[in-house]
Amino acid sequence: MALSNQLMVEGSRLQRHTSEVAQDVLRMGALVEESFRYSHQALFEGDLETVALITNQDIEIDRYYRHIEMRCATILTLQAPVAQDLRILSAFMQLVRDLERIGDYAKDLGQIAIKLALYPSHSCMPELAAMSKHAQVMLAKAMVALSELDSQAGEKIKLLDDTVDNAYDKLYHTLAQQRDIRGVVEPIILLALAIRHIERMADHATNIAQRVSYIVTGERK
Q1: Which domains can be identified in the chain, with CATH numbers?
Q2: Are 96 and 211 in contact (CB under 8 A)?
Q3: Under 8 Å between Cβ of 109 and 35
Q4: What is the pLDDT of residues 12-53, one digit of tens each?
Q5: CA atoms within 13 Å, Cβ hemisphere of 59
Q6: What is the pLDDT of residue 7?
Q7: 135 Cβ contact partners less than 8 Å away, ≥ 6 residues apart
Q8: Residue 40 in contact with residue 133, Cβ under 8 Å?
Q9: Can you give the C-alpha Rg of the chain in angstroms?
Q10: For residues 136 and 33, is the Cβ–Cβ distance under 8 A?
Q11: Which pLDDT belongs to residue 28?
């Protein structure tokens, strides 16, 4: 059953308010997914016009973040939820922090793309692009898991995260061991930042999936 429908089953005022928050979380997630795609286009396709789109969307993402946190805090204070409702609202408050951080990293990647555009493309870019694509898939799957309340989401996404971690280790080793650097080292530093940002974005996607599992099962893993 879809997230918002599941929360509306009992039809109480609390469930209605929680369902409204859930819909906002999903809308925020859609914006974050789009910002991640824009950062990929800027970094690997040279579409620097998307950087401005990321910046504008980050304002909207931050607005959703503040609104959802405030809404959850208000519900917790005024309606004193218990059991599953308390678990859902507390998980939402943590989950939107993960989404907000992914949005921030997407904005940072856009700025890195602008600076990297001044230099020749590095030989590691195809591997970095694959890493970025994989992290985007993780985020998309985590958001689908949230919308469908998939109790197995945490375990599924954690397996995907191992691929991103392995790519990070390999790319970091490549950059750290490079000896034939000519001229400035800025592009190497920027690439190291980029792989770190993408690795962290994947970690936050994993967090989201694990929070979904917690919402459904009540168990933290």
Answers
A1: 3-217 (1.20.58.220)
A2: no
A3: no
A4: 777 788 889 999 999 999 999 999 999 999 999 999 999 999
A5: 5
A6: 52
A7: 36, 164, 198, 199, 201, 202, 205
A8: yes
A9: 19
A10: yes
A11: 98
